[in-house]
Amino acid sequence: MAGRQARVSGSLWRLDEVDFCYGRQPVLGDFSYQFERGCCYGVLGPNGSGKTTLLDLLCGLLVPESGAILFNGRPLADWRPRALARQVALVPQEFAVDFDFSVRMVVEMGRYPHLGRFEDLDDHDHVLVRKVMTELAIDGLADRPVNRLSGGEKQRVAVARALAQEPAVLLLDEATSNLDIFHTLSIIGAVRSRVREKGLTVIAALHDLNQAAFFCDRLLFLKQGQLICHGLIDEVLLPDVIDDVYGVQAQVVYNDFSGCRQVSFRASDYGR
After folding, report:
1. Are 83 and 201 members of one domain?
2. Same-domain status, 132 and 39
3. pLDDT tens sequence across 78-96
4. Which terminus of the chain, N or C, has fewer Cβ atoms within 10 Å?
5. Distance of alpha carbon 234 from alpha carbon 137, whole angstroms
């Protein structure tokens, strides 16, 4: 919530002057930042500002053109994919499965990085999978083919698989964009409880500023691949920042009902 102080216990990721381009089109430029453990970060900015690219760089799906990315004090490129998968889980914007895997089978895939070669899931794995599926209210879908679910149901399956992975870091790329309010709050509650109780680090690319204020401890605002500002909610969720980043007028007030800052908008030329 607004004003909430995150638990910080040391740097997890360090990015030094990272640049990335798609072809000749720069997407991130001279990006430097340190992500601390046990904190929930919201990455905000207009479409095309570099949010998804940043997450893909953090989990090793993309390699920077220049600059350095360190994870747990080691160059990210030095991490073996399986070892990194034990530490980092990504929920992408679009979750697609091409085969008729059941929901249960997809969630069980979150346990694979922790298994040895040819090793089957044990009782602990099955208990964990059932618990996560119940927590996200997809236990009733367990035997359904995942490729026949609605977009929102698929997204809940993707989050369940990531939580079943028991990562140290959870990367969320607009993970609640297809969800109704009830299931959005369920996911936020499940993730925040792990931040609080297990020291999970969360980095979430978001469009909804009000959701970010409710969900996150710290915010990073990106614009045209540049880090415009970052800090605690009260420090950076401000009308002038929103105007600079999005080009809209905003009013930011503390809401007693939600227990955090909330934003109202209008276009800068509204009423002219």
Report:
1. yes
2. no
3. 999 999 999 999 999 888 7
4. C
5. 33
